[in-house]
Write a structure and sequence with these properties.
The structure is a single chain. The protein contains two helices and eight strands, in the order βββββαβαββ. The chain has one domain: 60s Ribosomal Protein L30, Chain: A, CATH 3.30.1330. The chain is of the alpha+beta class. Helix 1 packs across helix 2. The strands form two sheets. Strands 1-2-3-8-6-7 form a six-stranded mixed β-sheet, covered by helices on one side. A two-stranded antiparallel ribbon has the order 4-5.
Length: 127
């Protein structure tokens, strides 16, 4: 087994005791991303569409640093503090992904780090 820690300054730096991603053989486990702007480490406030887009941008930066892309994701987990945003997640996700889509879960949660409304993590399989 080969294990590699993935890190990039194009995604937010870890705000806890975790790596942005860990690659084991050809599988990459991406840690949860929230709507933090990498350059400032500030949370995007207000517009939930912008927040969701920022999370996908952050995931995309980590996939790229690991040698992949969003189309290599095989599983995405979405955590929302308000499940009424679920249709909007679908809309924004369609801007980042094409068929065939990755497997996915969407879970309503009571709260998320830094009081954000959305967090996503993922698993990527590289060729």
């Amino acid at each position: 087994m080969t294990r590699e820690i993935i890190a990039t300054d194009q995604a937010p730096q870890a705000i806890g005791t975790y790596s942005q991603a860990v690659k084991v053989n050809s599988t990459v486990y991406l840690s949860g991303q929230i709507p933090l702007v990498p350059a400032t480490m500030e949370v995007i406030e207000g517009d939930i569409r912008r927040q969701i887009s920022q999370v996908f941008d952050n995931l995309q930066a980590v996939t790229k640093a690991a040698g992949g892309s969003l189309d290599k994701l095989v599983k995405v987990n979405i955590f929302l503090t308000d499940l009424s945003h679920f249709p909007l997640v679908n809309e924004v996700m369609a801007e980042y992904f094409a068929v065939p889509y990755p497997a996915r879960a969407a879970v309503g949660v009571a709260s998320l780090p830094k009081g954000v409304a959305v967090e996503m993590d993922a698993i990527m399989e590289l060729d």
